[in-house]
Design brief:
Length: about 120
């Protein structure tokens, strides 16, 4: 197996774990659960997201390519992080929390569609 394939597997594993953990944390946020304060819950997302980004950059370096849909993914990643910060840190009411969480999940799903379609418009292309 060449290194590109290894990094791609790592990337996709991180994508699944990151998405699942985000949704579990989102449910805990809506329930007002103290689980959110647990040390592993605070640290693990950063570890997974670092792996996600590291594997993505490694793939680009190995392939020596920077297609336009990758620029879109980086932009969407920033939007996704921003919506997460709004949901977990800034939102006050249940309605605000739910809105930002759902918007973040929608962006995440679109990110996956951009990756699978390898097109800036994702499945809308
Ligand atoms: C939360 C953010 C991200 C998600 C959900 C995500 C999702 C995915 C998925 C599902 C694939 C597999 C596509 C396939 O099966 O062909 C993939 C591949 C890939 N992603 Fe990401 N990704 C994210 C962030 C990024 C970022 C920030 C970059 C670039 C800096 C990136 C670069 C790539 C590359 C180069 C591939 C390999 C495409 C291929 O060779 O098939 N990803 N991504």
């Amino acid at each position: 197996m060449d290194s590109y394939v290894i990094f791609k597997h790592l990337h996709m594993t991180a994508v699944v774990l990151s998405g699942l953990l985000f949704m579990v944390r989102g449910l805990w946020l809506l329930q007002g659960s103290t689980q959110l304060q647990a040390k592993w819950v605070k640290i693990t997302p950063h570890v997974i997201d670092t792996l996600l980004l590291f594997s993505a950059i490694a793939m680009l370096v190995v392939a020596q390519q920077f297609p336009v849909w990758v620029h879109v993914k980086i932009t969407l990643l920033v939007v996704y992080i921003g919506l997460g910060v709004m949901a977990f840190k800034k939102a006050k009411t249940q309605g605000q929390k739910l809105t930002f969480l759902l918007a973040a999940v929608a962006v995440y799903v679109f990110l996956i569609s951009v990756a699978l379609a390898k097109s800036p418009a994702g499945f809308f292309a």
